[in-house]
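Researcher: Here's my situation. A collaborator sent me these components and asked whether they could plausibly form a single complex. I don't have experimental data yet, so a predicted model of the whole assembly would be a useful starting point for our discussion.
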Amino acid sequence: MNKQLAAVVLFAAAALAQDPRQIVEEVQKRTRSQSQRYEGTLRVIDGRNRISEKRWRYERLGSFGDSKAVLRFTAPAEVKGVALLIHNHKERSSDQWMWTPALQRDRRIALQDRSTRFFGTDFSFEDLEERDASQYSFKLLGEETVNGAACWKIESRPVSTKTSQYTHSTLWIRKDIYVYVRIEGFKGSSLVRRIEYSGHEKVKNIWTARLLTVFDAGRNSRTELKLDRLEYDVTDLKQEDFTLQALRRG
Amino acid sequence: MRLLFLLTVPYVRKHKLRSLLTLSGIVIGVAVFVGMHSANQTVAGAFQQTVDRIAGKAQLQVTAGEGGFPEEALEKVQSLREVRAAAPVIEAVLNTGLPGQGNLLVLGVDMTGDRSLRDYDLEGKDDEVVDDPLVFLAQPDSLIVSKQFADRNGLERGRRIRLDTMEGPKDFTIRGIMKTEGMASAYGGNVAVMDIYAAQLVFGRGRMFDRIDIGVAEGVTVDECREKVAAVLGGGYEVDAPATRGRHFDSVARGLSTSINLTSLFALLIGVFIIYNSFSIAITQRRAEIGILRAMGASQRQVLGLFLAESGVAGVAGSCLGVIAGAGFARAVTPRLSYLVTEVYGMQQLVEKPLMTPAMVAASIAIGVLASLAGGLLPARNAARVDPVKALQKGRNQVFGEGENRIRRLVALVMLAAAGAALAFGESNTVFYTGYMTGILSLVLLSPAMALWLARALRPLLKRLLPVEGALAADSLIQAPRRTSATVSALMLSLALAIGFGGIAASIYTSVTRWMDQVLNPDLFVTPTESITARQYRFPASLGPRLAAVPGVAEVQAVRNSRVPVNGTPAMLIAVDLARVARRVRVIAIDGDAAGIVRQASEGKGVYISDSLSRIRGIARGDIVTISTPRGPLRMPVLGRVVDYSDQQGSMFIDHRVYLKHWGDDTVNIYRVYVAKGHDPGAVRREILTRFQDQRKLIVLTNAALRRFILDLTGQWFGMTYLQLAVAVLVAILGIVNTLTVSITDRRRELGVLQAVGALRAQIRRTIWMEAVAIGLIGLILGAVMGSVTLFYNLAMVRRDVAGLVLDYQYPFAMAAWLLPVIVLAAFLASIWPAEAAVRASLVESLEYE
């Protein structure tokens, strides 16, 4: 019986392995949580090895396809209070607004501007959106080993309703724990950006990369985002904390 | 060609000064033409260049007049599939307050998306050079400046610079430096970039944008995109290519172009007369030579060709020199013109050096050569017709034949009648301007006859002053009218031009002063800048009640004026509380009942327009005008026409409530402040300044100061014209020198005989001086008469084409009186050298002459 069960599981795993969508959906399923909070340390290292550091606090409510997030800078003093509100949608690209307390003004980040760099980092505004599997088509390209871990190599292309700067992306997903270890975004045949995920740890039973490193192919710089004080399923977050009014309140 | 070398070259060598004077006619005519057109094109080009460089890769621009439009329009544009990028912009000019640096063009942009349209090309090719993009956005004092501006002022990243803002002088931090290419090279490199939302605060724009720059999506044509954007925004917006703003410059500054074209034309015409004069004289002197040539078998055609070739060569040489002189003239005039265009039309540009395109050089040389050929044609034809036998007869060559005189007078009278008919029946511009030119030409044709009559009339007067010298001087003019006629004509034209423009200036001064007396009656005017024509700075509406609360203030009236598209072309819209203003100001209606017009307009039932706008645009009372507003096209009936000189291109009055409703803009350009009875306006002014000057930039002008500003601006406008006139008069004076030189050469024997029989040198001198002064006086009298005609036409031109203003005919007697000593003195100065040459000539040689 046990042998039979093992055979079924192995067969199922093999079948799953052949369907890239199911692999990505499995990643989503395993990382799903009702909310998230972390304190991020952002280090931008430019071509001349000059380092600028900022800190932000990130809070998310909801999960893939229906989440809202607020990212609020906490340091240094000149940028403290600047915030980004993101409303992710299942059927289309997210809405984003930026709040600048010194001006007491919010501004909408237009869809057309999502490919621009996120305030001098190597992230683009689009990279801050969640990548819901329903907005992409997938193709399995093969298997590769990344940093000693066996990975699936999958190509994703945005569906017509999804506006993206990338014509396609290549995803590397660890076979053992179903997490991303690398994503490369392309425009045509040109690499635009690469994100490396490392330092995976299990937090509340969710494997999470504690360090994200972004390389912009057009520039000789990189950005590191380190996640501290990471929490999942935080109980004190409310829907009304993720509105423009809340953003303005600070 | 051989004849040219055989005959012309020795003549030129022998008469160097006269040849130089001939050239000077062309040189000055072409120089004025080149200088003024170069200056005009440079200013227009600088404006277009600023627009183009700042537009960057934008293929379309959305505007809704100077007032801007609410932010909401941006999302509508950005939502379109046909739009690749849409970036909001606020554009304003700040006074840097830095010595010698003048103004700084500040562009408010949203840096999150703007870089897809504009290449900021930051120093170091690295974003981090904007110390930190997030800090740039987070801190409202952030500024990026061009490298050129930074270098000139020793600025570097992190340094602070103090600029005037709506909230008073404020320190800004330089957080980035752009390379001096592309956008950063606009406006002479005096360019800075700041965050658009910070710019809204700094310039008091509320939640408005000036325009949206658009990049068209791939696979979509510009026209398709334009249609979609126009459809999504509605009719109140203009969606055009950036180049269209340059066309707006032409429509707004057309008064300037017309004025420049007219004076250039006159300068050329005066040049033609100088050439005509010189060639007539040359041909007269060379009659014997021409006679011999004809006797030796030269055909009429060869002689005609010889003299036309001479004038052509003189034209080429004079034009080339004229282009060089014109470049210098342009250098002097361009900054003044640039200032005027900024102040009068509110069109920001910064000129660096005058523009001189190959096309302009080629056109100027062609025009100079044509003018020279035109001036030389009649004398050349006369030369060709010289009878070899008569050519050797003396004394008859400077006299007009009776037949010639009769034909000339007849043609002149026919032309005069044609000009009269054109004036009476000609509605179209072609007929009007043809009539104008025909009228001027008829007077020019009549001028030799009139000069002769005047010389005869002056003879007794001159004789009474100095019996011998006066009679000799007058007789010289009477006996040789051909010698003096062209000079007199040139002088007449110059002075007519001067009087024509002087009359316009006087009429405008009178009309504007009368209008100011009736309309500009507040005691104080509170403005955000020193210049009342600058509309980029505005006050918030909240300032009004605070001003009203100042002790001694009886009433405060808010004025919002901006140039907005009316029937598709920009016009000045003035939004005020019409009913309140009418209680203090007497509205002068051209048609209809003023009280009724104001009442209906204040109820939002229509607009009223200045008479000038009505004439320029052909808008009549009862017509429906379409005004572009951010909330869609506003169709309003024109309730009536009033007298108003607020804007050179005419103005339209709308009630402030209607403006608020359709533009959603409550900012204010000027507050009109009435001081309560028994209070000193000076004390109230000081109190306002004390209360507010630390909070925001605020200028309080007294009534007298505002009037001075307006009259100064008007004066500067005419100052430009007077500069051209001075040049034209100079050309005419050169003509006098030319005429006198020839007169002396012609009369060498006569003057020699006079000296031989005992005439004193002083007497000869005085004869020449009196002849010169007589030419000047005749030119002045004819110029004064012709000036009365040109003034009439100029007034019609101002009414029809330049500004639509109906001005009273006001002959500038004071100016004419002032011209009398100027011309007499100039004529006297012009005669000094020829007189000295006459008295110093060898007596023996003089008697041997001929």
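Model: Some features of this prediction you could bring to your collaborator: Chain B touches chain A at residues 74-75, 78, 83-86, 110, 112-113, 115-116, 126-128, 130, 132-135, 137-140, 195, 197-198, 201 (CB under 8 Å). Residues 395-400 of chain B have pLDDT under 50 and may be disordered.
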